[in-house]
From TrEMBL:
This is Cytochrome c domain-containing protein. The keyword Iron applies. PROSITE patterns: CYTC. Residues 1-23 form the signal peptide. Residues 31-128, 146-241 form the Cytochrome c domain. InterPro entries: Cyt_c-like_dom, Cyt_c-like_dom_sf, Cytochrome_c-type_DH. Transmembrane segments: none annotated. Keywords: Heme, Iron, Metal-binding, Signal. It comes from Litoreibacter roseus. PANTHER family: BLL4482 PROTEIN, BLL4482 PROTEIN-RELATED.
Length: 244
């Protein structure tokens, strides 16, 4: 790409995203932001759009659709309910990509070096209006023993089975007709595949249950469920994912 065209795209990106009230409240690192803008245009804008609104030229061909970053709604966080993600959360998503039970169009960007990833995070922070990163919530230690009968009861009492199915296949009674915050169809995770969008480590699964997945019908159970009970449900989900 010639220098003139690349510079024009960079200016276009800044002008387009600066209309966001949220973006205007964010102070960025100029060096990282400039580098990150070029990387965003090269790797991300084709899906997430030049304005970060999830309306890139390839967006309509994907299900689920690329995220609208301007809504400041993040599925994969280690922070409290309704809070912004940490910098590490965003880095983890870029490094890991998003691989769910029904597949995903979000690849891993682990081929980028640390500075390049930090530069991309700076752009996401700007577009999403993250004036200050959130503070991580550390899950309590994983229990050594869990009463699986009690865990199964919780799985049903908390209505997990309603969406994910009693055997975790993602085909619960409420699964059909679920919509995300953009009004687009969304499927509950099929635990039997063993694939988890936010990571398959027990702590990752605990966090998804605790903090929910913003922008989706998946609620935050941390509001009214004890950490111990969330661990019990986590262990039951892991059990389902290991069954053939």
């Amino acid at each position: 790409m010639c220098i003139f065209k690349k510079s024009a795209l960079l200016i276009g990106f800044v002008l387009a995203t600066s209309h966001s009230v949220l973006a205007q409240q964010v102070t960025v690192d100029p060096s990282l932001f400039t580098e990150g803008t070029a990387l965003y245009l090269e790797h991300c804008s084709v899906c997430h759009g030049i304005e970060g609104d999830g309306k890139g030229p390839l967006a309509t061909g994907f299900s689920p659709r690329p995220r609208d970053l301007t809504k400041s709604s993040f599925k994969f966080r280690s922070t409290g309910v309704g809070e912004f993600p940490t910098q590490s959360d965003l880095l983890d998503t870029l490094n890991r990509g998003v691989s769910g039970s029904y597949g995903s169009s979000m690849p891993s960007f682990d081929f980028l070096n640390e500075r390049e990833l930090l530069a991309l995070v700076e752009v996401v922070r700007y577009v999403s209006g993250i004036d200050q990163f959130g503070v991580a919530v550390a899950p309590p230690p994983r229990p050594v023993n869990v009463d699986m009968d009690h865990a199964q009861e919780l799985y049903r009492e908390l209505s997990c089975a309603g969406c994910h199915g009693y055997d975790g296949n993602g085909q619960g009674d409420l699964a059909v007709g679920l919509l995300d915050d953009d009004g687009l169809p969304i499927k509950p995770a099929n635990f039997r595949t063993g694939h988890f969008k936010g990571g398959a480590d027990p702590e990752n699964i605990w966090m998804r249950i605790y903090t929910g997945m913003s922008g989706t019908p998946m609620p935050a159970f941390g509001r009214n469920t004890s950490a111990a009970d969330i661990w019990a449900v986590t262990e039951y989900v892991i059990k389902l994912s290991n069954e053939e």
